[in-house]
Amino acid sequence: MHELGLTETIVAIALDHAQGAHVLRLTLEVGQLTAVMPDAIRFCFDVCAQGTLLEGALLEIVQPPGLGQCRACGATLSLDSPFGQCACGSVDLAIIQGQELTIKQLELEELCV
Amino acid sequence: MCVTCGCSDEATPTLTHPITGKTEAIASLHTPQSHTHIQPDGTVLTHHHSHDHSPSHHPDHAAALHAQHHGTTLTLEQRLLSKNDAIASQNRGWLKGRESVALNLVSSPGAGKTTLLVRTLEDLQSDRPMVVIEGDQATSHDADRIQATGCAAIQVNTGTGCHLDAAMVEQGLDTLHPPLGSLVWIENVGNLVCPALFDLGETAKVVILSVTEGEDKPIKYPHMFRASQVMVLTKIDLLPYVAFDVDRCLDYARQVNPHLICFQLSATTGAGLEDWYAWLQQLHA
Ligand SMILES: Nc1nc2c(ncn2[C@@H]2O[C@H](COP(=O)(O)OP(=O)(O)O)[C@@H](O)[C@H]2O)c(=O)[nH]1
Ligand SMILES: [Mg+2]
Ligand SMILES: [Zn+2]
Ligand SMILES: [Zn+2]
After folding, report:
1. Phi, psi at B261, each rounded to 5°
2. Per-residue burial over A38-76, b = 16 or more CB atoms within 10 Å of its CB, e = otherwise
3. Which H or E run includes B233?
4. Closest-CA residue to B49 (of A107, A31, A59, A5)
5. I need a labelling partner for B132 at 20 to 30 A (CA). Which of A35, A84, B60, B207 fits?
6. Which domains does chain A have, with CATH numbers?
């Protein structure tokens, strides 16, 4: 399950940037065409966040839908799998959205008020 | 209602019945701590608390969370695989500097990676220096099989990890120190999902599919077939005994990846190996 390794990476990157503050919210972007399952990330997050500054954080996952661009005619089309066929008949598509795997934002508790 | 965006539109995971086509919600997965919104452009947004934090447990923290007081937002936009990809680029540069190429062999377990590798080493070893990085979750059986051919090999055991990553290959290269002009073989862990995500610095990914697996593998595991530049359809000596439609398989493969270079061969009888060898011989850094 690669989601465990990815979640460890997510927690490590977040802790790196948190600089000792509690993390209130973590926003991830996981494109709908990646082979990464948000449910598995969530499950692993519970385990990996335990005992860290991320414990209790709100995990927000944004899943951009798949979008392809035809290399033959340039048209864009929506994709629900990482392949498809353009209206012009071509299957030669560049995936332009839906493969994101990014930590977008952290919301940190302010230490001094 | 959602604290972050104030939206109350909730969507749930669904189950679609294969025969009736009827779709129903999976209620059990819709826990109170987690909910989903679908935006007009199709973007799905889910919120989830990392564990039960009722007000009695962690009262201050939970209160801060729900009221959204004192929050500082830090925008990172950091790709999760950026560290792996940076090491992969280093590997690629290192290989190029040594005028070497690397092939990353991926497949389901038992498709025939090691058998093809052993056969290829036996036949081509005199033409060109070759070394092997063997990935497996446990045991060094495959590295032993490779070393029996006289080729330098090291075994990387990934434990519970389901793929090799670029750092493991970096270590492997450091240890093996392949001579100038080498062909470096990397046998990945048997798995058609995870290795697609991880760039190792290879020249090409080669996906190996055996005729005992069913011809629809390319559309069942499209990520892997898209990430690969080459497909080897192996065990073709078994075609008389299995219902496997080769043309259909190739159609599926090219539907997923129209640029895929395809070979058909048997590592045990040797049928079809010439084309595979011809392709390997023209590979240069
Ligand atoms: N009939 C036949 N069997 C093969 C062929 N290639 C591999 N095998 C058998 O398939 C099994 C798994 O092969 P192996 O190379 O260990 O697969 P790996 O897990 O992908 O490395 C072994 O029993 C091999 O003897 C082939 O071309 N034809
Ligand atoms: Mg093997
Ligand atoms: Zn995995
Ligand atoms: Zn088109």
Report:
1. -90, 125
2. beebbbbbbebbeebbbbbbbbbbbbbbbbbebeeeeee
3. strand B230-234
4. A59
5. A35
6. 2-65+98-108 (3.30.2320.50)
* CA torsion angle B197 B198 B204 B206 (round to 10): -60
d(CA B85, nearest CA chain A) in Å: 13
Type and span of the H or E element at B92: helix B82-97
C-beta of B109 in contact with ligand 1 (< 6 A): yes
B82-281: CATH topology: Rossmann fold (3.40.50)
- Interface predicted TM-score (ipTM) of this complex, two decimals: 0.90
How many DSSP H helices and E strands does chain B contain?
Answer: 9, 12
Query: Taking a C-beta distance cutoff of 8 angstroms, is the pair B28, B37 a contact?
Result: no
* Angle between the N-to-C axes of helices B82-97 and B166-176, in degrees from 0 to 180, rounded to the nearest 10: 30
What six digits make up the tokens of B228?
A: 């690969």
Ligand 3 center to B127 CA (angstroms) = 36
Contact A78, A95 (CB under 8 A): no
Q: B4 and A34: CB-CB below 8 Å?
A: no
Q: What tokens does A57 get?
A: 């954080």
Distance, in Å, from the CA atom of B127 to the CA atom of B43, rounded to the nearest integer, reads: 53
**B50-86 residue pLDDT tens:** 554 444 444 444 444 444 456 899 999 999 999 999 9
pTM of this structure: 0.86
A103 contacts B80? CB cut-off 8 A: yes
The verdict on A43 touching B (C-beta cutoff 8 Å) is no
A1 alpha-carbon distance from chain centroid: 16
Which residue's alpha carbon is nearest to atom 3 within ligand 1?
B235
Q: Smallest Cα–Cα separation from A29: which of A68, A69, A65, A76?
A: A65
Name B111's Cβ contacts closer than 8 Å, sequence gap at least 6. B190, B208, B209, B210, B213, B234
Give residue-wise pLDDT tens across range B67-77: 445 689 999 99
The two three-digit tokens of residue A96, written as one number = 């332009």
B272 lines ligand 1 (CB under 6 A): no
Dihedral of CA atoms B102, B108, B109, B113 in degrees, nearest 10, equals -40
CA terminus-to-terminus distance, chain A: 41
